[in-house]
Amino acid sequence: MKRNSYYGIVGNGETAALIDADLNMDWLCVPRFDGFPFFARALDPQKGGRLSLEIKGLSAKSQQYVGRTNVLRVELAGEGTQATVTDFMPWGKPVFIREILIENVSDAARTVPVTFTVTGTETAVHPIRVEKSDKYACLSDENGALWIEWCSRDGWEIPAHSSVTHRLVLGYGKTIEESQQAVNLHRNENLLDTLDFWEKWIASAKTPSVKDELYKEAYYRSLLTIKLVCYEKTGAMLAAPTASFPAVPGGGDNWDYRYCWLRDGYYTAWTLDQAGLHEESRRFYVFAFSLQEEDGSWRQPLYTIEGGNPIEFIVPDMTGPNGEKPIRFGNLAAEQLQLDNAGNIVHGFWMHYQYSGDKSVLERYYPQVIKAAEWVKQHWREKENGIWEIRERKDHWVHGKVMCYACIHTASLIAKELGDQEAAGNLQSEADRIKQDILENGWNPRREAYLQSYSEDAPVDISVLALEFYGLLDAADERMRKTVELIEQPLVRPRLESGEYTTASPYSGMDLGGLNMNGGIARYDYAHVPFYLPTIWLARHYLNAGNLKRVRQLVDVCIECSTDLLLMAEHFDVPTKVQWGNFPQAFSHEELARLILDLPEQL
């Protein structure tokens, strides 16, 4: 029985496909991650397109990855017949291949019908043209095209105790000609080559110390997953490969994550560096520094995977699986002020040096590090939209201030490492001023905790753990202990007269409890469902505090609520184990992988 079936993912460093255990491809964007989704049934069951395969008389037994690779395999069985369907995308090549093996295990010849079906995403704003025959399908719009070839038959005649094999080959490009050429060039790609690529890549990763085999598999699957959101052409790292998957049931938090957030990319690069996979991290920082403005800032918190601005638009005739609206493509958060940008890049760059030992890269970008620190010195006192990108308000976010501290403190360390003692001293003096401001103004005496912002009625927010993670407070500090005690309280939302729960924020002084939702941890105290990232962050706090029992409880919640392929979205629901939000989410996986690397052997 499936524990928690959802979707598997395959990809090639340019785009990625979501495929379910019933052999349906329900998400694919071309000609790259941030193109319009030609298949989008995972988002909109009515208008979203789909590529499907049915082998009559056979039903799927399981969907799994082939070892520690990103090759998906589904096994099917029926009376006298069995089949294996293997899906893969060769790295760096514009093609998806479905390899089908059907075996007749009976004593008589059998006819086995196989049906392929293709439908394109249908919207008035962005229609997909579909042309089909009995051997191919062509889907196209003004920005891209798919060419799919298969062998369509009423039935495959299979002698007793023998088998047949067939391939469905999907090529893509900017034009129909390019997509057809991709099929012609790559239809014979060897599955073994793709398996070898992934096996060699993951073999170079550091081995975790934990004894728990499920933890180890979650670690390796997380690394393999975040590799799939690395855009090979530029080094950009996506937050997730999907757009507008509803973050909450029936709500309007439907965002496009197919872009490179400096924050999410930094988290991912840090994990890859700690795992010994430095090439991807180095390329991310080269990409990030190429985006820095002349004044030392990063004008946007997120960029397209080629460094542009992701313009947001709404598709009015699409909805989420439960009717969620609006469905957004592009992301308006690119226009926000988020003060953690520079801290993410400068601190992450320092961690890259710490793990890789590549001093030449440190020297190369040192002038840009200093420019980033100087910009932060001028702007750290401003209000911002914050880590959760609240569109309705700006405030003095504790997390953002901490990352300003991290930027200048880390720039001081880099200056000292490179022998610039005068700059190191000046920078550290400014970092100390920021630290004092945060520790004094971030503390809420009424609730005896650090809250989301300096505001008197600020919500409880998991992001204040940055105080500990970046060295402003120790895990054993009384102020941090009281903050975590508040976080651990059950999340309580007051009901309105209508009977619905309010989602207003802030709450004008009402004490509403903490962030614990059935064992999962929410990001703030007006959330609807828990969030993988806060759950793992809280586990890291307990690791620092030496409470391994609580660490295991929190890690186990995440693994138990992940899918049967150990994949995680952004949010999750503990009782139902349903995934919410874009999928799979890079920061869920990177944070789990890095935590597991830090766990002691006895776990």
From TrEMBL:
* All residue ranges annotated as the GH15-like domain in the record: 215-544
| Entries under SUPFAM superfamilies matching the protein | Six-hairpin glycosidases
Specify one Pfam family: Glyco_hydro_15
Which keywords are on file for this protein? Hydrolase
Q: Which domain of life is it from?
A: Bacteria
Q: Which InterPro entries match?
A: 6-hairpin_glycosidase_sf, 6hp_glycosidase-like_sf, GH15-like, Trehalase-like_N
Q: Does the keyword Transcription regulation apply?
A: no
Q: What is this protein called?
A: Glycoside hydrolase family 15 protein
Kindly give the Gene3D superfamilies that the UniProt entry links to this protein: 1.50.10.10
The keyword Hydrolase is annotated on this UniProt entry: yes
